[in-house]
Amino acid sequence: MKSALFTLIIFVALSFILLRLAGWYSYKSGPKSVVTPETFGDLPTTPNVATSSLTFASEQEQVSAWTALQAVIEDLGRTSKVSGTSEFLHYTARTPICGWTDDVYLLKAEGESTIQLRSQSRVGHSDLGANRKRLDEILEKADLSAD
Questions:
Q1: Which CATH number covers residue 137?
Q2: Backbone angles phi, psi at 121, to 5 degrees
Q3: What is the mean pLDDT of residues 100-108?
Q4: Residue 55 lies inside a defined structural domain of this protein
């Protein structure tokens, strides 16, 4: 019985170490593809990406929401700003247990009064809904609702 328990403990420990190493790799490897304002709408065919779109009645509402979204993302924890302009922002978000790195993008469309949000995993085929949950949490905390 002790041998089986010891084997199980070793197996679980090694599995966790391998998952953490994979999380480290996802952080060091960078995004799967470079997302720019021009390629923002080009989505992968895998289910590990989530998007949301916000439409505003005025440019003032759009600017207010843009500021609120930035503040919420920066306050989430385990997030870092990678790059940004007045119309395009790129953040990384780390998952809590394994440390997987996901990319979060915001695109403010000038003249259209819209903001597009995108959260995408760097590794794996599926994210088990993590990116959708992240976007929903961001929108909820910013007191915004997607179209």
A1: 3.30.310.80
A2: -75, 145
A3: 91
A4: yes
